[in-house]
């Protein structure tokens, strides 16, 4: 398993995984992922096996200068056949390291019925701060808004 910046060549696979992971919702298209990359957001892929198959992806947007930054986890998905193997944890930790590099508070939304994801986020310092009613469409499922306070380390202090 290796993590690397998401490649444009993998965007069709991302869209394929979205359709698998979020049936009955409005999964992201290849164009939506391309737009995220065009905006310069931080996206990673998790690659496995001799074929270097994309088995997971995650994206983070960061706004503001170091010490005042905020970050938002835009997406995190893992191929169902690769779930429960630590792929999501690796991707999340990499996103958090990116946010920590600029001391950013991190926000995300997660379905209220996605207990494994909620547990993963809680284990990494996130807490629930709100509910977004009917956030996911077209199903109308609710989402928790969760946040993790900024982590200020030596690298951030040096940049400030």
From TrEMBL:
<dbReference type="InterPro" id="IPR016181">
    <property type="entry name" value="Acyl_CoA_acyltransferase"/>
</dbReference>
<dbReference type="InterPro" id="IPR006464">
    <property type="entry name" value="AcTrfase_RimI/Ard1"/>
</dbReference>
<dbReference type="GO" id="GO:0008999">
    <property type="term" value="F:protein-N-terminal-alanine acetyltransferase activity"/>
</dbReference>
<dbReference type="GO" id="GO:0005840">
    <property type="term" value="C:ribosome"/>
</dbReference>
<comment type="similarity">
    <text>Belongs to the acetyltransferase family. RimI subfamily.</text>
</comment>
<feature type="domain" description="N-acetyltransferase">
    <location>
        <begin position="1"/>
        <end position="151"/>
    </location>
</feature>
<protein>
    <submittedName>
        <fullName>Ribosomal protein S18-alanine N-acetyltransferase</fullName>
        <ecNumber>2.3.1.266</ecNumber>
    </submittedName>
</protein>
<keyword id="KW-0687">Ribonucleoprotein</keyword>
<keyword id="KW-0963">Cytoplasm</keyword>
<dbReference type="Pfam" id="PF00583">
    <property type="entry name" value="Acetyltransf_1"/>
</dbReference>
<keyword id="KW-0012">Acyltransferase</keyword>
<keyword id="KW-0808">Transferase</keyword>
<dbReference type="InterPro" id="IPR050680">
    <property type="entry name" value="YpeA/RimI_acetyltransf"/>
</dbReference>
<dbReference type="InterPro" id="IPR000182">
    <property type="entry name" value="GNAT_dom"/>
</dbReference>
<keyword id="KW-0689">Ribosomal protein</keyword>
């Amino acid at each position: 398993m290796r993590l690397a910046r998401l490649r444009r060549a993998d965007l069709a696979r991302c869209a394929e995984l979205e359709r698998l992971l979020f049936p009955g919702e409005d999964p992201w298209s290849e164009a939506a992922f391309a737009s995220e990359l065009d905006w310069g957001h931080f996206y990673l892929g998790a690659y496995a096996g001799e074929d270097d198959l994309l088995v997971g992806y995650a994206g983070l947007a960061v706004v503001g200068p170091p010490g005042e930054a905020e970050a938002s986890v835009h997406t995190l998905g893992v191929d169902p056949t690769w779930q429960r193997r630590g792929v999501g944890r690796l991707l999340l930790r990499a996103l958090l390291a990116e946010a920590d590099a600029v001391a950013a508070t991190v926000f995300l939304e997660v379905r209220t019925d996605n207990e494994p994801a909620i547990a993963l986020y809680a284990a990494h310092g996130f807490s629930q701060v709100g509910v977004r009613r009917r956030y996911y469409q077209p199903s109308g499922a609710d989402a928790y808004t969760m946040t993790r306070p900024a982590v200020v380390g030596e690298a951030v202090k040096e940049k400030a």
